[in-house]
Amino acid sequence: MKDKGWKYIGNEGEFRLEQPELNSYLYFPLVNEAGMMSAISPNLHGELTSGHNTFLLEPISVESLHNSKAARNFWLHIEEYGAWSVTGNSARQNAELFSDSKERTYIDAGFLWHSLTRENEKLGLKAETISFVPVTDEKIELMQVRLTNTGTKTLKFTPTAAIPLYGRSADDLRDHRHVTSLLHRIFTSAYGIEVQPALSFDERGHRVNKVTYGVLGADAAGHAPLGFFPITEDFIGEGGAYDWPKAVAKNLPISEKSGAALEGYEAVGALRFASTELQPGESASYVVAMIISDDRLDSERYATTYLSAQRFEELLNQNQAYWRQKLDTISFHSADTKQDLWMKWVTLQPILRRLYGNSFLPYHDYGRGGRGWRDLWQDCLALMVMEPAEVRYLLLNNYAGVRMDGSNATIIGNKPGEFVADRNNIPRVWMDHGAWPLLTTLLYVHQSGDLDFVLQPQVYFRDSFVKRCHERDLSWSPEQGNRLLTKDGREYQGTILEHILLQNVVPFFNVGENGNIKLEGADWNDGLDLAPARGESVAFTAFYASNLMELSELLLHLREGRGCDAVEIAEEIAVLLDTLSEPLNYDSISDKHALLNRYYDSIIPVVSGKKQQLDIEKVAADLRRKAEWCIEHLRRNEWIVNKEGYAWYNGYYNNDAKRVEGDYPEGVRMTLTGQVFSIMGGVATHEQVAQITAAVDRYLKDENIGYRLNSRFGGIQQNLGRAFGFAFGHKENGAMFSHMTVMYANALYKRGFVAQGKQVLDSVYRLSTNFERSRMYPGIPEYINERGRGMYPYLTGSASWLLLTQLTEVYGVKGYYGDLQLEPKLVKSEFNEAGEASVETLFADRMFKIVYSNPQHADYGQYRVASVQLDGQPLPLTSKDKECLISRSILEALPKQGVHRIDITLAM
Questions:
Q1: Strand 15-18 vs strand 7-8: parallel, antiparallel, or unpaired?
Q2: In whole angstroms, what is the distance from residue 520 CA to residue 528 CA?
Q3: Same domain flag for 319 and 410
Q4: Is 74 helix (H, G, I), strand (E, B) or coil?
Q5: Dmax of the chain from CA atoms?
Q6: Computed from CA positions of residues 162, 168, 174, 175, in that sequence, does the dihedral angle turn out positive or negative?
Q7: Could you say which of 43, 412, 583, 871 has the lowest number of CB atoms within 10 Å?
Q8: Domain encompassing residue 831
Q9: Could you give the 3-state DSSP secondary structure of residue 632?
Q10: Cβ-proximal residues to 775 (8 Å cutoff; 6+ apart), any chain
Q11: What predicted TM-score, i.e. pTM, was given to this entire model?
């Protein structure tokens, strides 16, 4: 594919985009583990925050990127010219944006730094502005401006940095914006300006505030500014604006020096530096720091630590090394090196979502920080192969959010294991939430071999909502805390296995009148939120069915691998394992509801605390019976054949209990979700999978935007969900929603439909990297809209799924209860000219380079595993033709240092 838009520079994933300001809605993330979260656009617009209530720059949405003038800026007042902005954010430069005399600009970006270069041939001036967030334990963004005289005459200018200091909660953007400026206490020091509002004036109440927002700066040698313009109205002047401030346009003298204390106004970090002369070829540079601190700033310490050209270079190198090391834990090497580099950016995205949550980037202008329940588990999928050291701890703590009724907390705290009751007292249950933890936990168990994890004890979450939020327990009060108690007042703990059982067995009985699991508040698609009474999710009934089967197999492996003969559970839960006492007629919906209600009543307001030991084989058989009933039910009742002869699985019932897919007067209705989980979970037979792919290609595939999430339903569907109020081809209504598209590919690979799966993955890559249409930097977006634009970049669970699919399915590198299983599903075109494809990844706490050699250039389905070598030594083949298994004991005998090589020869 011919490159358009950005182009890679070198082999580390760095890229360049010429004239970036001619593209709207672009932004780039800058972040660190200390909690500084930044977004930066080609003209250095964006936001800068450490949380919902602590924004240094003004909170923005994507429209603000081109409509608001309040951005990072660095100005020069040039003799015989006037005001000029290194970022292009001036009224004069904007007026020339589409003219032939426009300045030459380009951005370079890498992991995780951003550089803007602007060249003005008439002025003989080149400005390079590098921005990044250092990997220190402080909330700080650094910006270095390097100015070079590229002309033949002496260049004389007066520099002024200008960073607007919003300095408060996002809630104050339109609610008491002026009143909260009256709280501002503004101070100047030798190196800059800081704002410490007297009170926090937000939803937390009127509390004394300690958080301070600062802008400090110095020249390359560390010399402080001459003085400052701390108050916005003084800086921009009457009739002025941030894109044409009077203080710069008229080169006004400074209004304040070090030691000033002001209050009650909007603030700006406007730092005036000494006038400078540059001879032809000479350069000058300045470093500006934007800081959020828990208290007043020690400006001298910050100056020593950050504000010089030497320190900037050292910290930038440290930053680049840090992110390179983190991302080098997994890398792919195929015939398409550009796609391999693109995957590096995809690999970054799960880390970004861990750090940002689903907020604090311009498209993600909703929420208040933190992550949702679903995100906790899906992000761990990628972290397991990138940051495995913390995964066990994260998983264990996540289970503390499970309620005893099988639902879970809806508000997730910032710390692992921190859950709180619903902020707005609105009870809601997403029916899919119970399905994801087992999938993630199984991946962990297979990767690590840590079967003991599922036997670890953990508490349960408790609040006033009971019976899956259908009722409230008025005897509960917040003073009791958010832990489930026993009759004698102790915190109740059950094993992780018990938590998993509840999450998957309770939904089995919680069915609608068509026999599928109730949709409740919604499933993974939050837009299906208007069918709480009679809606059903057929798609996730398939997911839960496969979970029950997987759980049954896990129990048998516990018996064989750990010698467990019994499962210990709370005595109340035993009724849900009905075949061990009084087998239920699963065709009877009323019987299912009656049993579930008996269970609910037994756990309110507390549990007994008593445990039962149940035979592990009988429990496994019970779960298998439930799974088999679901599968048979779906195959018998939800398989659709339409009048054109295409066939697929229905995905949903609406709030009138009517099937939503099939032939309708408005046209054929179909959802991709209904196909993904029926394929992935083994509900669809091999023959049905082939029919499904034909139907998907017929009704959902669109060459311009990829695989649509659904076909056009027509109308707003008030009995199904708000998603259908969106314009068709946007977001959850018919866009290419990356999450489900990638899961569709994953499902196809799992079932051996490799060519079809590869076609799906290729479409995601092609659409995302077609800059002429997608207008996005490297990575996978949340969705592709009707015009082909990539929307909501960086923070999407689809990145975890794409990374996982590429590693475990395409390259076939996965764990099997701790052993390393290698089962490549690479197609012929993915091998290079030498017939090789490889991946470097972590496994068993060691780095491996796994090299597949395909000297005959055979396609998938033609080759078999012929031989395996570890660090040059042959290993015996222990599995089927298409795969091999390497014992964990062999891997753990290897040194942890260095990269170990596994060579696999494929032959026809």
A1: antiparallel
A2: 9
A3: no
A4: strand
A5: 95
A6: negative
A7: 583
A8: 811-907
A9: helix
A10: 5, 23, 24, 25, 26, 789, 790
A11: 0.95
